[in-house]
Design brief:
This protein is an alpha/beta fold. It has helices at about 40-50, 60-70, 90-95, 130-135, 165-180, 180-195, 200-210, 225-230, 270-280, 280-290, 320-340; strands spanning about 10-15, 25-30, 55-60, 80-85, 120-130, 155-160, 195-200, 220-225, 245, 255-260, 295. Helix 5 packs across helix 6 and helix 6 (about 180-195) packs parallel to helix 11. GO terms for molecular function: thiamine binding; thiamine pyrophosphate binding.
Length: about 350
Amino acid sequence: MNRRLFVLATITLAVSGLSAPSHAADELRVMVHSSFSLPKPLLAQFEAQNGIKLVLIKGGDAGEMLNKLILTRAQPVADVVYGIDNTLQAKALAAGVLEPSLPQAAGTVDAQLGDALAAVDHGFVNLNYDRAAVAKSGTPLPKTLQDLTLPAYKGWLVVPNPATSSPGYAFLLATIAGLGEEKAFAWWAQMRSNGLKVVKGWSEAYYTEFSRNKGSYPLVVSYATSPAAEVFYAKDQPAESPTASLNLAGGVFRQVEGVGLIKGTAQKAAALKWVDFLRSAPVQEALQTSMWMYPAVAKTPLAPVMRHGAAPAAFESLPPQVIADKGASWVARWTQVVLK
């Protein structure tokens, strides 16, 4: 994902294991996924204002992080967790790793995650295209997912494997939600025959195989904010992003990330302060260009660069319990259809 990993000078960084580390009374153990990133001054300010020493525990990607919480629930390794999203919330609740009720902050938000999680940010997994490569091809952009199965688009798309990639999984869910299960897997079978490229993770798809980065594929599964990140990190600050979103029906999935308290934590008061912090105006503004997500709290001003990464007008979604019940079998079926 096009988020930068965090580097903390004054904050303690702990690498999670499978046993509960000892911790001081003023420590708050915060488990986060590997894409978590906020400005160091904001984190230091939280510590100073609250008399709390943060211990940030990297849990891997969101699915790996949740699995670690489940494995250590008898002796929790964290007090609060950020990064469980709508594709994992039902699994987290069923596993009993979260406090079942979290006081929700006053005011409306753009996204909700139920009683146990407070929404912090949201984003959209979609298709990105390389403007230069598409223009050079002379082929108009596809208007539907089905168009991508035509000979004109053979060898155009690279996707991360949904078995090993969160955005790859979200894109699979989008196709199922948008096309229906049977038609979705028929589409994936057609794409296999039309030169679909599958790689392990998003980084390989975007930075190696995507034509924007000297790869061969002009279309890639990425995020609606990726074009904005291209402008933000460019040395010359172009007026137009070299990439753009292609929001096709059945090809956009909304991801909502939240924060929740670990069940049985002795640091509930401190953990609730962390929840409020993540939903505060400074953090809601900062996360847009540090984690490349949209703020969950309504009416938060968008960073100017986000005009290059506008949120899609329409997207797909599935009930969390349906994802929990069928997600694993869908991934297994996808593997059989696309890779076997």
